Each structure stands twice: as structure tokens, then as C-alpha cells.
Amino acid sequence: MTFTRLLSPLLLLCALLTTAAGSAPAHASGTDLLSSLGIEANAKPKFLQVDEAFQIESEQRGDQLLLTLHIADDYYLYRHSLRFKGNNLTFSEPTLPEGTEHEDDFFGKTRVYYQQVSIAVPLKEVGDGATLRVRYQGCTDGLCYPPTDKLIDVAPLVTATTASAAETAQSVAPVSQQDQLAAALGNQGFWLSIVAFFALGLGLAFTPCVFPMYPILTGIIAGAGHRLSTGRAFLLSFVYVQGMAVTYTLLGLVVASAGLKFQAALQHPYVLIGLSLMFVLLALSMFGLYTLQLPSSLQTRLSGLSNRQQGGSVVGVAIMGMISGLVCSPCTTAPLSGALIYVAQSGDLWLGGAALYALSLGMGLPLLLLGTSGGKLLPKAGAWMDVIKQLFGFALLAVPILLLSRLWSDQIATLAWLGWGLLLCGYLYHHNQHQPHSVARSVRGFVLLLAMISAVVVGKDLLQPAPPAAITADASQTAPQFIRIKTLDDLKVQLAAARGKPVLLDLYADWCVACKEFEHKTFSDPTVRERFGQMVLLQADVTANDDADIELLNGLNVLGLPTLIFFDREGKELTGLRVTGFMGPAEFLGKLDQLR
Q1: Residue 522: predicted pLDDT
Q2: CA-to-CA distance for 398 and 392, rounded, in angstroms?
């Protein structure tokens, strides 16, 4: 069927050429002939060459041959078209990823691959000069390519004696944590995968990216008032966590399917400023400046429902949970990257989405426990309830600082936190002055005054002009020196120039919280800096998220930030050492040990 589909346009073109040749002068040039057919001589082909549309890479790891097919945008590869034939080798039939269901005019319902697919071919016996013939076929809208064959050279397998000797000189190439999770997600059972990712999410619940959600939820619980029961607190917390989980899951699937540009778009300054203003308005309502409520006409219609739902709106809490999912969306970790890699390579949105949902539920479990206990921990009535609400108002004011810190310099962010601390101490001091005279009141007042004076002193030092360059010269010499790159071509040039030395590429963005943690906590470690002296350090700032940034990220198959990529002395990536998510100095030094 594919041959017939290709033959028809060729026959039509031959007929047009024959007609044009019969009517054209004998001396007419090829350009004139193309012009007579309405074709410009310099017109670019509409479709890519088959080797441009479908590029295959191979890597042999012991008794496995790893094949990676890179598929151009808007092109797809048929799952059923993949065929493998060995020459002077035997192998087990590889397990193919499920792929994505596709309705085809010729084949009907079939499975196809988009963007990229990875296949592991288990090798049994390999002779001299062995090759593996890989056949595949792909299409795009308006064109189907004929089946294509590629020959892959396969090296002889290492015997047990040789392998034991080789292990003393060089360890087996490691596999990165995110790749291990992606492989496990595709190989182990559905429910086992879900439980595993739920447990991983529970471990992520105490990372900096989840912290902003604690004051948001506690503010919601405090805003429910003294009528809040334990059951009601559980319901509001459960709805909040569900809203966060749904948003986090959907964003993950979008990033895995469409690329990092959507994740970066959510960190645009306009988006962050808009979210910050919303949290400031919520905080002001906690201070009693105004009351957020529905119009009176709508309140009357929903009075019966309101009586059953004491304090708080389920719909409003769900919306706040969804917004909180946006707050934690820029954080990338190994479990998240593993799920995204699995979705991107297999196209299995169901299992990938379920894993992301379980991951986010694990992240939300401490939130659920905290919110449910709010009904018991918060005072039920009296003036203390207003104090608690106002304290949670300060907690909500901390969220905009956390968000806007992705846009500000470290100095401005520190000043903002000092200002927030002064306001909080001033409020507590004012409240303390209205308490009955006692020793405890005097001690509290003294501590609060001391805290405010310290904040003013620190702020004054930050506002001082920067010291002369001579004073900071020694510090700058000890700081790791990164070479900035922008494009894939820049990366190739720097890798060629660094031949003979290992290379680290740091993919960074201002909106990436964990990227800044790497700079301040890990890269500043003296031992790490000492080891950096033996390497070439590259850094790509993708904050702008322009075309060059997107091309670089897609070319390196990066699904989230932070991501650190290591290259060996020959300029080849060490895929097993790729780092996604924050890593402390001790663990990062372990990665550098593997690089040795």
C-alpha cells in the first residue's frame, strides 16, 4: 500500500515532465522547465530526507545493544515496522515500548512513536564482524517513507575472564537514577510502580519547593474560623491536596509531551508577579482589611449548601490547590525526571500520569496531616483566633517572597526577608505590649527588640556599596569559573577545546530554585571547588527560554531543571552520571568520584 501511495505522485510528475518537454523549445534550460511547471529552482523541499527525519544511535553495554531512534517533530515511526536481523550474531527479541495509538489511512489503528524511542537488544553470541540490521518505516502528514535498513556494528562480547580483568581497571558504566526509575516504571507491575512513586513523593514533601504550600494550606484552615471541625479540616485539606496533585500531574504530562518551554513559561515574570499579588490580597484579608466572600445574591441561593459546609469553600480550596501546583512546578527531581522520561519515550500517558499523580499525593500527605490537625491545634474561639489568623497572614506574605526570589538578586531577596521579619517582629511586639505585666512579657519584648535591631544592622550592611575589586579578588579566584555557552554549536566547540579533560555542563535558569541551591550550597563547598580545578566547567543560562535555549534543551533531551551533564575526556556524554534535582556536596562528590 505504501508503494502505491509513493508511485502515484511519481507517475503524475512524469506525465507533467513529458507534456512540458513536448511543448518546450529544445534549447530550454532545466530552470525554464521547472518554471513552466510552476516550480521555483531554489524552492526548498517540503519534507525531510529519511535520514534527517529518523536518526538512529547505538551504544553497546556489555551484552546489551541500546538503540535510540530520534524522530523529527511532526513525524512518527510505526511500531510494527521495526524488524531486527543479525549477521554473525544471535540475540533475544527485544521488548518494544507500547507507543501511542494512531489512526492511519492505510494500516488503520496502529501504534507509533514520536520524538524518541529507546530499545534494548539482548545479545547472546557475537562473532567477528557482526552486524545488526534494523528496519523501520515512518510517515508524516502527506508522505510515507519506504522501509529503511540500517546496519549497526556489534563488538564481540567480553568473556568472563576478560571481564574480571577489565573490572579492576574500569567500573561498569553507571546508569543515572532517573534512567533507572524510568526503566523500572516500564518493567515492574502497575501497582508496584504506583506505591514506589508514592513513597518517593513522600520523601520530596520536605524539599524547598513544597515549603510554600504549608503556609497556604494553614492560612486556608485558619480562615475557616472557629467553627472548623476535624472532619471539615480533613475535607478542606484533602480537596487542597487533590487540586495540587491534578495540576502537578497535568503539567508533568505536558512537559513530557511538548518540552520544557511550557514549564519555563509558567515561570515568566508576569505569571510570578500575578500569583504574588494574589497571595498578598489573601494575606490582607487575614489581617481584616476586607472579607473575601461571594455576592449576596449568590450567597442567598447557596445558603443551604453553606450551612452544610461550615467555613471555607470547597471549590475555592480546590482552586488554591491547583495554584499551589503551579508554585511547585519548577522543581525537578530524579523521580519526576524518571516519570517524564518514561512518558516521553514510551508515550504511555496512563502509567506515566498515574506515577506523577502518586508522586504528588506522596508530597501532599504531610500537608493532609497538617491541615487535618488544624482543627485541634487552633483555638476554637476568642481573641487568640484573630492573632492566629494574622500570623498565618504573615505566612501567606512569605509566599510572594519565595516566588519573586526567582527574579530578584540574592541581595534584594535577603532585604525582602529582613523586611518581612521586621514586620512580623513589630506585630508581635505590639501584641506583647497589650498583655498583662509579667516577667515573660518583659523577656518577650526584649527578644523581639533585639531581633529587630539585628535585622536593621544586617540590612544596613547589605545596602552598603560593594567593596573594591582588589578586596574581592581572592574570593573570585576561589569561585568556580564557568564558561558560558548558548547553542549546541557552542557546546561542540567547547567540548573539542576541552579534549583530554572531563567536562561538566550546568543547565541553569533564574526561575529554578534548586539551580541556585547548587550554586550556594554545593558548588561553594571547598572540596567540590578543588575537584572542579581538574575539570572544564560549562554553563548554559536558559532563563530567556528563546529559540536557541529550546533547541539546546531538546538536543540534550532535558526535561527539567536543574540538570547537570558530564562528558568524558573524548567529549562523549556519560549518561549514567546525569544529575537532575538538587544534590548536596557529599552526594555530589560521589558523582565526581564515579567520573574519575
Answers
A1: 92
A2: 10
